[in-house]
Amino acid sequence: MSRGQGRSLSRSDTALLVGCLVLSVVAMVLPTRWALVFSSGVRATALAPVVWLQNNAEQWRTSRLELQVISSARDSASLAAQSLAGLQAENAGLRGLLALKAKISYRTVPAEVLHQTTATEGRTLLLGTGSSDGVHVGNPVVSPDGLLGLIVSAESHSSVAMTWAHPDFAVSVTTADGSIMGIVAPTPGFEASESFLELRGVPYRDTVPDGTQVLTSGLTGVYPNGIPVGRVVGTRREEMGWERVYRLTPAANPGHVRHVLIYLIRENRLDP
Amino acid sequence: MSFDKRARRRRLVFVIAILIAAHFYIRPWVASRFAPDLLMLAMMLVAIRSRPGVAAVAGFLVGLTADVLSPARFGAGALSHTIVGYLAAYGRAVFFPDNLLVNAGLFAGGVWLRTLIVLLASGAGASELASTLLIWAPIQAVVTAVVGVVVVVFFRDWLAIRLDE
Q1: What is the mean pLDDT of residues A203-230?
Q2: Tell me, what's the ipTM?
Q3: Does B71 contact A124 at a Cβ distance shorter than 8 Å?
Q4: CA-CA distance, B64 to A155, in Å (whole number)?
Q5: Which residue in B81, B136, B72, B61 sits closest to A165, CA to CA?
Q6: Measuring CA to CA, how many Å separate A238 from each of A51, A92, A183, A191, A201?
Q7: What is the band of A262 on the pLDDT scale with cuts at 50, 70, 90?
Q8: Nearest residue of chain B to residue A25 (CA atoms)
């Protein structure tokens, strides 16, 4: 190899590196909507076979390794459901006495979580169910433990959910007894002990005891009411004597969940 | 390109295809946080056998794939994999990866550095940085390195590095 040729190859290496770095930075500064559209397009075309492959692997894993767990969960659920008919009748009777409308019920679809290996994976989850099963952008995603997040992108056979760990997440909530309302969002702090959710907007005069369960309020129309979000574990800060911010342990862990349910709230509407 | 070189490339492509298939079909059977990153391993195997520019492009493509599958911070994966791919190829001049321990060190270091860059580019807080870089990333790096060494040993004739590459 001549000296000139070596230098030109080295220049081409540098050019390729710079080109890739520039494209990466461009990708990082892309508006979120464009990034989601691009990702969605690539997942639905070039990466469709690998998404299909991983979804199949997850389904196989469930049917082989988790059959016993699912069977015992089904037994517990059927046992709990035995008292449901009486409760529903009682509830309907009480609603009738108070002249309340029937509670809205939503259809759900199950989905496998296709975990990835990147460090930020818990902020978004790739799901093995998509628009062909009625999943649309904005549909809430829950695990057996509680609220996980909502769908931000949906292709025909896969979708992406933004979880509560994402910095853009927020949900309107109420305490289990309905006495206090607020907004739950991830903690923006940088201290090692504060990687939790926080309950904001609670008036200073109200006190939320530790251990109080916090549920979705259903007020914004994004999430149905009554889904567990987390439990209060202490006060984080007090804002100038007019608001208290509480720390919450999340009910559901996006890093461990393998199956989720998607509420089809927006099945008949167009994506925003 | 000589027949021998072409055959070696075909074998490398075959090993990479196996790793990609395993990443999407076998890895989900393992608990996710400890699972080896076989896509990253495939990229490192290509990088240490390529010129730095080619390794940067390979890293960019693998990173873009990671971003598309997990778009929490789009572009962070592409940036981190590009840098790690380039450095792995560039580092070949310094650490000739013929020794198994050197291979393992390159794989583990690559995975850890990738995680560091992804977290920094994603604006992760101190708690997330500390727990991931001190606990989860080293575990994933070691697991990936062990799998990488097994792959290198199993395909040692196919993956042997020639000085003319």
Answers
A1: 88
A2: 0.90
A3: yes
A4: 18
A5: B72
A6: 46, 42, 15, 17, 10
A7: very high
A8: B75
